[in-house]
Amino acid sequence: MRFDLVDLQLFIHVVETGSLTAGAARSHLSLASGSARVRGMEQALGMPLLLRGRRGVEATPVGQTLLHHARLVGQQMEKMRGELGEFAQGLKGQLRLLCNTAALSEFLPEALGAFLDRHPNISVDLEERLSDDIVKAVSQGLADMGIVSDSVDMRGLQTFLFRPDRLVVIAAADGVHHRALGEQGTVDFASVLEHDFIGLADDSAMQQYLGLHAARAGRPLKVRVRLRSFDAVCRMVASGVGVSVVPLAAARRCQQTMALRCMELSDPWSVRNLTICVRQFGELPLYARQLIEHLKA
Predict the structure, then answer these.
(1) Looking at the predicted structure, is the pLDDT value of residue 88 above 70?
(2) Between the CA of residue 37 and those of 8, 40, 62, 156, 222, what are the distances in Å?
(3) Which of 54, 95, 124, 226 has CA atoms 20 to 30 A from the CA of 216?
(4) Inter-CA distances, 237 with 104, 166, 223, Å
């Protein structure tokens, strides 16, 4: 059974017009050629595709099935033509990307910047949100994609690993907080709550995440200073004012220029993966799919 694209397009036109003559004309074929093609399809299947009557033709149940698949093939061909045209003219488009604090601060700028540098006609509306809120927005079609912690429920979405992300405790290398936390190299979050805390702004997704776990531990964060970036947090911690919890990537980067001690958190929630989530990868525009492939790499 071999149907070519002309056969499928002809069959769509015949059913839509209810006439072999009109369908053949719309397909730029003669009536004889159109009729021969339809007979050839019926012979290949071994069953009729059309019911022929005085008022024209209509699809049989088998014909309806063929019509459905022929339309899908036609849609895919149109999508392919459009996307190939985008390649020829340069990718164009706009998408909305939501991400949590760790992704926005430590991993996404460099990766996203490299992609946008190669595709100057693509624009991104980027916004920081809590992981739970991101999943809801993507599920409801309010965002094209999100980058979240894998600690949230992403059932119903397609997911792809972006980056591993461990949260660690930082303290000044020589200070009272360092000595109070001990020399084990690992500390639990409950112990951190005994110290003055250097945090991010209240509207930060990371700060809300840490506040949630402090509430679950039954003790509030004793936030002494609120800042807008991990770099600023690390500088304040290095001055000995308090301790903080930051992504390992931020701690390692700042340790190169600051006197910081880094300790692992023993709490299971501190070890997580940053995950890209979308509703349906195959339904995204070409530029969005290419961005995901770039971020995965």
Answers:
(1) no
(2) 10, 5, 16, 43, 79
(3) 226
(4) 21, 19, 12
